[in-house]
User: What shape does this take?
Amino acid sequence: MDKKIAQSIEHWKQRTGYPTLSVKAALIDMDGTLYDSMRNHTASWYRLMTEQGIDCTRDEFYLYEGMTGASTITRLWKRQWDKTPTPEEVKELYHQKTLYFNELPKVNPMPGAQNMVAGLMAHGITTVLVTGSGQPSVLDRLATDYPGAFADNHRVTARNVTHGKPHPEPYLKGMEMAAVEPWQAMAIENAPIGVESAVASGAFTVALTTGPIPTETLAAAGADLVLPSMQALDDILPILLPLISDKQ
Ligand code: CA
Assistant: This one.
């Protein structure tokens, strides 16, 4: 594992041109990373879109993961009807998607995620949420499931960015909130679009395969380190953190 970590740091140095990695903040995605919520998201998107008469597959919503709801709706309308929805239509459809999402069983924290976040905090790393989501049912649970980790001024959501992932803005905004530079930030993601956003921001990017998207796809999106699960990240954290931060 030490060799794999060393290679990932080298990968990051090569692509960013920064001489040293000195992580002080972790910018963490929510759906499919902190919460095991993607099955519910794909199910509610699929239900909404098929009801609208849009041809789609359940699995394609894993590929749009990380985009704002508005982007997903616009993308499918354009594909099906070559039409752009009005902001009112987007609002109404996203509201309906939220209702369908809330009808599904409650989502749980991703196994290993609570311990992983506690491990970051114990190491003195500032934790920031970076999500494209605006789902209150999940956002409202963060304070309970991850106590002290994601204060209101350490949350990038659909509400406070102009450009969603894959644009780097959400991760750059997260860095601004933590008052760190790209060489002081690590990102933790699970989806290709999220990885692209994190990579473009310059953060050291760790991708986790927590759904059907394979390792190769996350590596191709530019991730510096790809791990098979959140639990795997939690397990290697004691080895990883001293290698990517100043502290031993
Ligand atoms: Ca995600």
